[in-house]
Specification:
Elements (H helix, E strand, L loop, with lengths): L8 H4 L8 H9 L6 H14 L8 H11 L3 H17 L4 H18 L5 H19 E9 L5 H21 L4 E9 L8 E8 L2 H12 L13 H13 L5 E7 L28 H10 L3 E6 L1 E3 L7 E3 L2 H17 L8 E5 L7 H20 L2 E6 L2 E6 L1 H11 L20
Parallel strand pairs: 1-2, 1-4, 4-5, 5-8
Antiparallel strand pairs: 2-3, 6-7, 9-10
Helix pairs in contact: 2-3, 3-5, 4-5, 4-6, 5-6, 5-7, 6-14, 8-9, 8-13, 10-11, 11-12
Length: 418
């Protein structure tokens, strides 16, 4: 949609009653003659002045959708308009979700009539919408220093099966997968990244290639660059549109800084707080961004006696949990999330239930949040009103037909046999 400056701020603010301005603007300007491109320019300018008043333009968009019926030549451009507005004006997203839901139902109903070109054109916008509604962003923050080779191999070898089980248990979930592989501060490179991408057969092949090329080395002292791994993952979650967000930290070592390991660690090249990045700031940000955090309790081989092993992350994890829970306590709004640990050893078969249970917990929590109701006052009477998330979920349940199962057919390819 082209940016069209048709009205200035003075035009929008010329109404005497500012509370009634949104409805008056929509009724006055959108009734004029003009095509969709012209009207979408008016809506864009309106939302620049009243970004939280998308409810005022939603009825007009719904009317256009109703008039388009199942005519894809009209639904497609309308979808582009709403998608553009949705991305340009974050404060308007809640008000536009009802329009998206109606579009979803119509597109689902007529998808079998679409040409390959029409499907290709609609796929990007629809995928973004679906990720917001039922997406899961799963990020592994994986220690790949020299003690972690069996764990790297297990994650690589079992990911195919993990995703298969997840899909069987949570059929409506759409998964995006990313990996931050970290080492220590003095290692080169200290990180390698598998940028988050929607899971399909191609993604799994790319993941396997990434993991095959991931060398395990470094970590001259016992602590590792936990902060660096969390920092990169936090950046990904900052930009996430998914309602379900899951981080899984896999390490057998604490972060740098004596406060994170006390007397448990024999060697720390950066024992003082001012020498390295503070991982607690990223734990706080993850909590504020509604990310569920799961952390592995793993046995580390002792430097002075390789035949002996013990958990070296207890002190760090206790601080992580306290920081996370305090951030959630201080947060206004946001959904219920969790931070917890789970035991993991070198047995590759343990990965499947451990990871599936962790991601399943995240999905269950976000689904419960969507199903919540709240009380609102209508004409002086308290009544139940579904949250936007719940309305959103209902729209999916009411949609005619099932969502397609291939990215070429508007969504994702979950056939993991290749």
């Amino acid at each position: 949609m082209d940016d069209i400056d048709l009205l200035g701020d003075d035009d929008f603010l010329s109404f005497e009653d500012e509370d009634e301005a949104p409805a008056q603007i929509v009724n006055y300007y959108l009734r004029e003659e003009g095509g969709l491109e012209y009207k979408s320019g008016l809506i864009r300018d309106f939302l620049m002045t009243y970004p939280k008043q998308a409810d005022a333009v939603a009825p007009w968009l719904e009317q256009q959708l109703e008039e388009a019926n199942h005519d894809l030549s009209r639904i497609g451009p309308l979808w582009d308009v709403v998608s553009t507005l949705y991305e340009q004006f974050p404060d308007a997203q809640e008000g536009l979700e009802s329009v998206f839901s109606s579009m979803y139902q119509r597109v689902t109903a007529i998808r079998k009539q679409m040409t390959p070109e029409q499907k290709k054109n609609l796929a990007p916008a629809l995928t973004k919408y679906l990720l917001r509604a039922k997406g899961v962003l799963l990020v592994f923050v994986l220690d790949v220093t020299r003690t972690m080779e069996p764990t790297r191999d297990a994650l690589r070898d079992k990911m195919h099966e993990i995703l298969r089980v997840l899909q069987s248990k949570h059929k409506k979930a759409i998964l995006r997968l990313g990996v931050v592989a970290f080492r220590d501060l003095d290692d080169m490179p200290d990180q390698e990244l598998f940028e988050p991408r929607v899971v399909n057969n191609s993604t799994l092949r790319e993941f396997n290639t990434f993991m095959q090329g991931l060398k395990v080395y470094g970590g001259g002292d016992e602590p590792e660059d936990i902060a660096g791994g969390l920092r990169r993952a936090t950046e990904w979650f900052e930009d996430a549109t998914e309602i379900t967000r899951t981080l899984i930290l896999i390490t057998d070592a604490p972060a740098h800084g004596r406060r994170f390991h006390g007397d448990m660690v024999m060697m720390d090249s950066y024992p003082h707080d001012d020498e390295t990045d503070d991982p607690l700031q990223y734990i706080t940000q993850l909590a504020k961004n509604n990310v569920d955090v799961f952390m592995t309790e793993m046995m580390q081989r002792l430097y002075d006696d390789p035949n002996q092993r013990e958990v070296r992350t207890d002190v760090m994890y206790k601080m992580f949990v306290e920081t996370y829970e305090q951030a959630k306590h201080d947060q206004t709004g946001g959904r219920k999330t969790v931070i917890r640990t789970f035991k993991l050893n070198d047995d590759a078969d343990e990965f499947i239930p451990s990871i599936v249970d962790s991601v399943g917990t995240s999905i269950t929590l976000s689904e419960a949040q969507r199903a919540q109701v709240r009380m609102v006052e209508v004409d002086g009477v308290q009544v139940e009103e579904q949250t936007p998330q719940a309305v959103f979920a209902e729209a999916f349940n009411a949609a005619q037909g099932e969502m397609p199962t291939s990215l070429d057919d508007l969504s994702l390819d979950y056939d993991f046999g290749y």
